[in-house]
Design goal:
two-stranded antiparallel ribbon, elongated, mainly alpha, about 140 residues
Length: about 140
Amino acid sequence: MKISTKGRYALRMLLDLAENKNNGFVSLKEIAQRQDISKQYLEQIVSLLQTSNILRANRGNQGGYMLAKSPAEYTVGQVLRITEGSLVPIACLKDEPNLCDRAGFCKTLPIWQGLYKVIADYLDGITLQDILDKYNIENSDSYMI
């Protein structure tokens, strides 16, 4: 499984919005500058995220975007499913029930199902807030007096 730039940049954009949640609506121009991502590329990502109701938008002079919910309510898995379409490691796991002609006797199917479960459980277990919290802990100055 390979995560595209769209998935990685969507995650960076949402983390930026989470960090700036107290600033109200944030413009794409500001996010693009802070994240060093093209504004045009962010516009493509925004259209995906808006159809999933992850973002709130405000048009006009004070316009921009903000998270529709708390950063603790969004998982990495959720974001990547929106941008990547699926987290499955092989095509035959996309459909439920499995429509592969070999599913009933495939010796390797349990391997791919196990891998998918590990990937999904891991990514669904990490929220945007978890990422910010870990970053803040690792990058805080801890002085003892």
